[in-house]
Design brief:
This protein is of the alpha/beta class and 461 residues long. The protein has 16 helices and ten strands.
């Protein structure tokens, strides 16, 4: 009897224990199952477990807008994970025949791959460009020839020249354009006409005094005119191409925080530059010749070319990697032969970051019909919210310099011909004229300003 009771007791304890285990196991199993389901859902719908998360997020530069992965070329899939470029990647296109008068492309352009069109959106650009041309007005703060700093504030009375001619070209072209108004009440934006490049070389100011000059200039503008104070400078802009511009405004915080900066040193890495508020100015060497060369792709014997000072680790890496190559020609310092002929003899021309992300090499390449290869991380390329850069250039991360030959030679002849043909179409947008020509660099900068004319920013207290 005692043994029976013991067995009954043991059996009842075992049942209770089994019940407790089952009570513990059921919710644990449910939780584990739920967790596995959630992880599966996340992995199938996001990039969390994607070994190359940039394919679909930051680096949408190389995305196919139509979503058809079969149309992405090998060069795109090869470099997509390491590119560091954040420009828009969608749109149709606007273009014309080489460097003639700009005309919208025919409707057949919509039948081509999205990577082949040079503008993001044909309809939007054409419509807005016409509106800008008819109504956009700029008030330039007036100064006369007797002003002690007339050389800094007024348009130059000669043809702009040198590596930083873009800011002088803009001022001279604006002064000769229909956009300028003497009536501030009709102005959409207000132009601060000081020249950083000329201040830098003025012995009364120089590099040491440029920050105080700009600070004093803003003080005078805000005390003698009412326009700055209405918005804290949000409807004001200045233009600068020299790299001194990134520190020239250090004592005028209102400009950095509120005004529109149209600058060549347009790097996402610099705190002084604010993408979307500010705009990238193309650095273009002046060209007197009205007829840029038309060298066909078949006439270009070199794969790639670079020449310039070795003033950055990126350029140093380029030279160390490719200085002895027989198809990629890289040179430190000046060439003993013709620089222009080297550009015309090359399929690709390398724009490599120096002291700044910007150089005149992109403009040089486009002018000579050479496809630019941009090796400069964090560069907000000129007109990037207008032009489809992937249709006429190659962007390569600085870390991919050792892969340069493989990337460029991996392009098919059709892919290269498409890039080269688009270079011939787009290069007119990277040319300055003293008297503005429709769709040239001046008009493109004006369009960038027109896009920013109604940006709402809180005035500084």
């Amino acid at each position: 009897m005692a043994r029976s009771l013991f067995l009954l007791y043991s059996l009842s304890r075992r049942r209770v224990s089994d019940s407790l285990r089952s009570l513990f196991f059921i919710p644990t199993a449910l939780a584990l199952t739920t967790s596995l389901f959630i992880l599966f859902y996340i992995s199938s719908t996001s990039n969390l477990f994607n070994p190359h998360p940039h394919h679909q997020s930051r680096h949408h530069f190389l995305q196919n807008p139509a979503g058809d992965l079969s149309k992405i070329s090998p060069i795109e899939s090869q470099t997509q994970s390491s590119l560091d470029f954040d420009s828009p990647s969608t749109g149709l296109g606007v273009g014309d025949d080489h460097d003639g008068d700009a005309k919208p492309l025919s409707s057949s352009i919509g039948k081509t791959d999205a990577n082949d069109v040079i503008f993001h959106d044909e309809d939007v650009f054409t419509h807005d460009y016409l509106k800008m041309n008819k109504s956009f007005k700029i008030f330039m703060y007036p100064h006369d020839k007797n002003d002690p700093f007339a050389n800094v504030l007024l348009p130059v009375d000669f043809e702009p020249e040198g590596n930083y001619a873009s800011e002088s070209f803009f001022k001279k072209a604006l002064n000769n354009s229909h956009f300028l108004t003497k009536d501030p009440s009709k102005a959409d934006l207000f132009y601060l006409p000081f020249s950083n490049a000329r201040l830098r070389h003025d012995p009364r100011v120089g590099i040491v005094g440029i920050q105080d000059f700009i600070k004093d200039y803003i003080f005078n503008v805000s005390h003698y005119y009412p326009y700055w104070n209405r918005t804290g400078g949000a409807d004001h802009f200045y233009v600068a191409c020299h790299s001194i511009g990134r520190v020239a405004i250090n004592k005028a915080e209102e400009i950095k925080l509120n005004a529109i900066q149209v600058v060549c040193s347009s790097s996402y890495f610099l705190s002084a530059y604010v993408p979307h508020k500010d705009a990238s100015l193309p650095q273009i060497w002046p060209r007197v010749d009205d007829d840029p060369p038309n060298i066909t792709s078949s006439q270009r014997k070199k794969l790639a070319f670079f020449a310039g000072a070795i003033n950055s680790p990126v350029r140093q890496k380029l030279v160390e990697t490719w200085q002895n190559d027989t198809s990629i020609f890289v040179h430190s310092g000046h060439l003993n032969t013709s620089y222009e002929e080297a550009l015309q003899d090359s399929k690709f021309c390398l724009h490599v970051k120096g002291f700044e992300v910007n150089t005149a090499r992109i403009g040089d390449a486009l002018y000579h019909g050479c496809v630019p290869v941009i090796i400069a991380n964090h560069y907000d390329l000129p007109f990037a919210d207008i032009l489809n850069w992937k249709s006429f250039s190659i962007v390569i991360a600085t870390l991919d310099i050792p892969l340069l030959h493989r990337i460029l030679s991996g392009l098919s002849s059709d892919e290269y011909d498409s890039l080269h043909n688009n270079v011939l179409k787009v290069r007119k947008h990277f040319r300055w004229h003293t008297n503005p020509v429709d769709y040239d660099a001046f008009y493109m900068v004006m369009y960038e300003l027109w896009l920013r004319r109604s940006s709402i920013r809180v005035p500084l207290s």
